[in-house]
Amino acid sequence: MVGNTLASKLVEGGHEVMMGSRTRDNEEAVAWTKSAGARASQGTFADAAQFGEVVFNCTSGGKSIEALRQAKAAELGDRILIDVSNPLVFAAGSPPTLSVSNTDSLAEEIQREFPNLRVVKALNTVNASIMVNPALLPGDHDLFICGNDENAKAKVARGLTDWFGWAPQNIIDLGDITAARGMEMWLILWIRMMFAFKTPMFNLHIVRASAP
Amino acid sequence: MVGNTLASKLVEGGHEVMMGSRTRDNEEAVAWTKSAGARASQGTFADAAQFGEVVFNCTSGGKSIEALRQAKAAELGDRILIDVSNPLVFAAGSPPTLSVSNTDSLAEEIQREFPNLRVVKALNTVNASIMVNPALLPGDHDLFICGNDENAKAKVARGLTDWFGWAPQNIIDLGDITAARGMEMWLILWIRMMFAFKTPMFNLHIVRASAP
Predict the structure, then answer these.
(1) Percentage of chain A surpassing pLDDT 90?
(2) Which residues contact A151 (CB under 8 A, 6 or more apart)?
(3) Helices B106-113 and B180-197, axial angle in degrees (round to 10)
(4) Does the beta-carbon distance from A207 to B208 stay under 8 Å?
(5) Residues of chain B with C-beta less than 8 angstroms from the C-beta of A148
(6) Count of structural domains, chain A
(7) Structural domain of A65
(8) A183 occurs within a structural domain
(9) What CATH number corresponds to the domain at position B170?
(10) Hey, is the C-beta of B195 within 8 angstroms of any chain A C-beta?
């Protein structure tokens, strides 16, 4: 669903997007390609990863490493991978937890497994519809970004603005990829807010003593 | 430092406050008592816990359980304990981590160890000076609260308003004490922001599709 939302917005913005799945003829991917128009296509994870100048990981957190192995992510050189995933574990009757947290993060696992990739963690802290349309919420509200490569982060930050409409002052750079721990741990707080508000349509704004 | 800040504000507001320490003649507590005036006093953890209608746990997260044992917290009946602590672990050269997180929290540990206490997690998500003076930051910004006892939460929420000036619409009730996981995990993200901003003077505001 996250991948579909991001891909549709990118296609609307004039970008060519290939949706990757485990199989080339995945029904949902084929349906998306048909509905999204001429700039949309689908293929295997490896097809899509090879196709993209920038690769988005929108797979389920527990399956991300395996999906990226299928994507032959080790053969992608220093490509930028935007990691949107969250390592959430849902168990019946209990609050959701994370499969990795505190001393490590999924983004770091990905960076370690594929050291040549330039992993940038972004967008995982909000609902998919807000990712691609921050104007759904009033006023200023913020995204985080982190990663080890400054150029990659700068390119992704520009993309968040150009592709999805995030104002530059609402993108907070938290430093290297270890900051993904906090960005992923936020989900545990986020989920409790979603329960309390009965909607995922919210985000945080960081209020500081001096502007912004 | 957190306890000193909270106690001083409460004394200023006309409340009688006893500061608890490991020993009755703790130098910093004695100095605080002298400077804070007639409504301030100090004693052992047990003296202070017995004294208070409401007890604040402002001890270091890693020492909280032991401090509460010294406070004879098991003998306090159904007193309200406001848990302000965070289970932070600082190790040289690494980002701070939590000693408990994800599937448990310090507040839950305290609630399990002292099942009669009515534990309310609050205030741990902001810097001490903001805890007692939310007007240090402009406009709306928010606190979380959680706990298993609705009456205790309601009383603490009123206290946050009456004692410290938090507007009721800026206090978000996240439900039972398991929500303390997210409130404590927030610190990992908070610390990275403190590094990025080079100041602890910030807080989050939750922006929703419809007011507030």
Answers:
(1) 96
(2) A118
(3) 140
(4) no
(5) none
(6) 1
(7) 53-197
(8) yes
(9) 3.40.50.720
(10) yes
**Which residues of B fall within a CB distance of 8 Å from A166?**
none
Question: Is the CB of residue B182 less than 8 Å from the CB of residue A188?
Answer: yes
- Could you report the per-residue pLDDT of B33-89, keeping only the tens digit for each? 999 999 999 999 999 999 999 999 999 999 999 999 999 999 999 999 999 999 999
Listed by number, the residues of chain B in 106-145 with a beta carbon closer than 8 Å to a beta carbon of chain A are 136-141, 144
Is the pLDDT at A103 greater than 80? The verdict is yes
How do residues B86-100 score in pLDDT, each as one tens digit?
999 988 888 899 999
Contact B175 A183 (CB under 8 A): no
Quote the crossing angle between the two packed helices B2-12 and B27-36, to the nearest 10°. 20
* Chain B contact for A175 (CB, 8 A cutoff): yes
A206 part of a folded domain: no
Q: Under an 8 A CB cutoff, do B174 and A188 touch?
A: no
User: pTM of this prediction?
Assistant: 0.97
Cis bond before residue B212 (omega within 30° of 0): yes
Q: Is the ipTM of this complex over 0.85?
A: yes
Mean pLDDT across A146-171: 98
**Identity (one letter) of the amino acid at B144?**
F
CA-to-CA distance for B122 and B125, rounded, in angstroms?
A: 8
d(CA B208, CA B135): 21
Give the pLDDT mean for A122-145. 98
Asked whether residue B206 is domain-assigned, the answer is: no
Nearest by CB to B202, which of A95, A101, A207? A207
